[in-house]
Amino acid sequence: MARPVAEGPDDGTPPLLTRDGHGGATLTLNRPRHLNRLHREDLLALQQHIKVLAADDSLRVVVLTGTGRAFCAGFNLQELAEADAGSADPRLFEHTVDALEQLPVPTIARLNGGVFGGATDLALACDFRVGVQGMELRMPAARLGLHYYASGLSRYVSRLGLSAAKRLFLLAETLPADELLRIGYLDVLVPPDQLDTAVESIATPLRGNAPLALRGMKCSLNELAHGQADDDRLRQREDRCAQSADLQEGLAALAQKRPARFSGR
Question: Which of the two residues, 229 and 19, has the higher pLDDT score?
Answer without folding.
Answer: 19
